[in-house]
Amino acid sequence: MSVSLWTRILLSAILIGWSVLSYGLVRGAMEDVLPGAGDVLADIVMTMLLMVPMLFLTPLWFLSSLSQHSRARKRRSQGECCECGHPLGVGFDQPCPECGSDQRLKPIETRRLVVGCLIIWLCAGLIGSGITETIARMDEKSFIHAHEHGLFHPKSRSRAWPLWGSLKWDEATRSAKGSFLEGRSSFLDFSTGL
């Protein structure tokens, strides 16, 4: 496999992994259990905001084409064929006699590069959010099912990875509730008097 393919696989894993962790944080912080479509959409928007730093990694997707363009420019300035490196002489605008490739360099289309980066970033964010929402719903449904059917289950427990917080069963309302920082000390907790 080429270096370009490995770069794309690694970049995809990093972007989707960051999205999964970001969505898990947001979903846990919202303390919702089986939220509606509007709440899920809000969680996705906040996840995408947490993914903004990852936009700077997306040009790595196009690393091979950018390096090919750079190599072609360097060869062209040295009087060589852009593709095969055959010596042509400076200012040679005809097709290469060795490989037949055109010697005119096409400029890098910045708009196309930016749109491509945004699409990659958005797709990774949506895939990671979808994966985490699926994990969250399965976890919450199993917690609710266990309590509704009287199966042995603790009254509260941590959420499934990668979600933050815990789930708690409320006997009065016979429903599950989410909690983000319960049982954890936080810099946001001013009740300690510190």
Walk me through this protein's architecture:
The structure is a single chain. By secondary structure, the protein is mainly α. Helix content is 49%, strand content 7%. The protein contains 4 helices and 3 strands. The chain has helices at 3-29, 37-50, 63-77, 110-148; strands spanning 156-158, 166-170, 175-179. The chain has a 3-stranded antiparallel sheet with strand order 1-2-3, with helices on one face. A hairpin with a 4-residue loop joins strand 2 and strand 3 (175-179). Helix 1 (3-29) packs across helix 2, helix 1 (3-29) packs across helix 4 and helix 2 (37-50) crosses helix 4. The longest helix has 39 residues, at 110-148. The chain is rod-shaped and about 85 Å long. It starts with a helix and ends in a 15-residue tail after the last strand. The model is unreliable at 183-194 (pLDDT under 50).
Please render the helix and strand layout as text.
Layout: H1 3-29, H2 37-50, H3 63-77, H4 110-148, E1 156-158, E2 166-170, E3 175-179
Antiparallel strand pairs: 1-2, 2-3
Sheet with most strands: 3 strands, antiparallel
Gap from first CA to last CA:
57 Å
Percentage beta strand:
5-15%
- 3D shape: rod-shaped
Rg of Cα set = 26 Å
Show unreliable segments: 183-194
- Which structural class is indicated by helix and strand composition? mainly alpha
What is the total tally of β strands? 3
Helix content: 40-55%
Strand arrangement across the biggest beta sheet: 1-2-3
The helix/strand order is HHHHEEE
The averaged pLDDT comes out at: 85
What is the number of helical segments per DSSP (H or I, 4+ residues)? 4
